[in-house]
Amino acid sequence: MKKRSILIGVGVFIAIIIFFVSKVNQSSSNEGDVYTEVKFGQFRSEVTASGELSAKNSVNILGPKSMQQVGIWETTISDIIAEGTVVEKGDYVARLDASQLGQNIQQMTNDLAISQARYEEVKLDTAMELRKARDEMDNQLFAMEKQKLVLENSEYEPPAVIKEKRMELSRAEKKYNQSLENYDLQKQKAVAKVKAAEVEVMDDKRKLDFYQKVASDFIIKAPEPGMLIYKRDYRGNKIAQGGRVAAFDPTVATLPDLSTMISKTYINEVDINTVSSGQVVEIGLDAFPDKKLTGTVIDVANMGQQRPNSDSKVFQVVVEINESDTTLRPGMSTSNKIVAQVIEEALYIPVEAVHSQGDSITYVVVRDGLNLTKKEIQLGLSNSDEVIVEAGLKEGQSIFLSDPLGLEGKSIEMLEKNKAIAQNKQ
User: What pLDDT is stored for residue 65 in this prediction?
Assistant: First the structure.
């Protein structure tokens, strides 16, 4: 009996040692695990995205607005000053390729020379036609005067002869009157032909002057003082030397108003429903990490777009900068933290502490002394770092940021409402 009691005591002692060693080993295995506490307080739902500064208002530097009228639908930028150059009104900015326009001007010059030659030719032709008509009129006048003399000298001739002479005079008068009418018609015709030729010359000269005026507009000058910023195409690429300028949009570059700046950012389609106009934005500058700015969302795009090197749709969001700072320049990169919603009292934990099993169960690993428990939780709003816990935890509880080793087979302690559902399924 005594021997049996000794064996039982030894067995208990060995079991205690094994249990202690296992606990020590478990603790040793988890020494590298990091844990935190469930916090209670103000929670901010935030959407973070990078952006780029630009001026809210700017003046466009335009190429010739009349390119289309001279038969040019598109041209290229032959030369342009460096981006960021400060210019005064009237300073040289860029030069557009005018080679096609030069060909058109040469054609118009040839057309003007032809119309001027035709004008001179018409004047000579009409002068000769009118001279011929005047000679005919003089001849008819001479014939009429001659018949008058013949009639006067036939006073003593027989009545039949006198009558014949009167008829010849009447015929001569009629021809003379016809020559007068013909001369008037010839003169009117000549005036019309000369006028038409003159109008053609004037029209060709007007066109040539217009083409030359447009050619002078291919030298682009600053309409206002400011800092030159290159225009961007629909892909977001800067249009510099060699870039295309279309007749329907002849913008070559812009002069931004640096007093009011905006940051254009693009929000993923998953987060866009939480963003709306009027929300507060915290803004950081990559160029000046210590500088902190604030802003307000002023516009949220209704339609998504596919950005380069991206598989998902994004929506453009425009943020107006509240502060006016002389260090802000268009093109600077910004980090925009949009405060979508603020909850004054909420339980929240780091997002890396949340684990999942399957598609429907979300849990955390709770530490209670040496005990580790996998507990199901119900989540609410989240931001890039933290998430609200609506059920399953209490303030101050200690939870692991990573899933500790050795708990793979351990069951999850379900929430009461889900526990009943699980029991019914079984």
Answer: 84
